[in-house]
Amino acid sequence: xxxxxxxxxxxxxxxxxxxxxxxxxxxxxxxxxxxxxxxxxxxxxxxxxxxxxxxxxxxxxxxxxxxxxxxxxxxxxxxxxxxxxxxxxxxxxxxxxxxxxxxxxxxxxxxxxxxxxxxxxxxxxxxxxxxxxxxxxxxxxxxxxxxxxxxxxxxxxxxxxxxxxxxxxxxxxxxxxxxxxxxxxxxxxxxxxxxxxxxxxxxxxxxxxxxxxxxxxxxxxxxxxxxxxxxxxxxxxxxxxxxxxxxxxxxxxxxxxxxxxxxxxxxxxxxxxxxxxxxxxxxxxxxxxxxxxxxxxxxxxxxxxxxxxxxxxxxxxxxxxxxxxxxxxxxxxxxxxxxxxxxxxxxxxxxxxxxxxxxxxxxxxxxxxxxxxxxxxxxxxxxxxxxxxxxxxxxxxxxxxxxxxxxxxxxxxxxxxxxxx
Length: 421
Hints:
Elements: H1 12-30, H2 32-35, H3 39-43, H4 57-74, H5 84-101, H6 111-124, H7 131-139, H8 145-154, E1 160-165, E2 171-175, H9 183-204, E3 230-233, H10 241-252, E4 260-263, H11 271-279, E5 281-282, H12 287-298, E6 317-321, E7 326-328, E8 336-340, E9 345-349, E10 356-358, H13 366-371, E11 377-381, E12 385-391, H14 392-399, H15 405-418
Parallel strand pairs: 2-3, 3-4
Antiparallel strand pairs: 1-2, 5-6, 6-12, 7-11, 8-12, 9-10, 9-11
Helix pairs in contact: 4-5, 9-10
């Protein structure tokens, strides 16, 4: 007897139970001798659910078999190439299980049931009706799905704080922590995180593989898969952790190593300020303009001589606010330093203190960033003003260079000499 190819991914007893509990009910209810007793069939025969009797046992078996064939012929053609191991030990099994569950909602033999059957399948796997089936699937490692999910959990998925495609079309990932009890544990955590990052990027970035890269309106080419950067956010407790992840990724998948970039951590940032930063424009100033800006900032009293014109401006962005827009909300986390390029900001402190205006080029919010404190004032624009946005990590590493006591003494003495009045 020829072996059923589905047996490899979903054992016959499980398939039979699903068929009898759901699909066989569709076949039974759709028989003519059953349908003629339904007044609705006689009144609206052409639209009656009985005419969709193909959603039965034969149909689900055929769909499951076709899944295997479709994956075979589309691999590397219509979907990104998966190696044989990934096809055999995950995608085939997952596909067969999805095929067997996708139409179970048709067992609700009504027009409403037919309309809602996709949603029914998505919810039913979490109900007691399928508990026994799901438990057997897990215990038997059907389609290798249980092993894969367990491996991902062990491999560091629990340390992934977020993964998202940003406004620039790049994949951005953050991590809960980067510091562990020992160097060996940190290394292991980096490997596990790299394993998960590699898996996530394969699913996300490769899903755009093979798409038409030209704009339908002729405005130009879309971003290619090879241009999608993988942005790894630093971890606040160990800034070197993402470097370890990149080292591990170079071993796991050398092809993506050149697209890995480090970006400042935005963890614990208010969603309000985080969204503004991610959507803000990149700062493409020439070195001469950066030097001029630092000279302007120095006149406000901020020490700028040691700020590197390249590293100090990496990840710095700019944004324009309009009258009435809020820049900072009181009692939010201090995660950015802002430098207004002109007048137009008003600070409204907590505690009953009088509002005051912010002068151009004066760093705003740096005290809270240095202290790790909560914002103690609202800041709003009372006229149009452009600002630089400096992430906390960039500011502390490259901008925070306070004057030594002797330096400050000399500056104050020089100021008195120049302006004795």
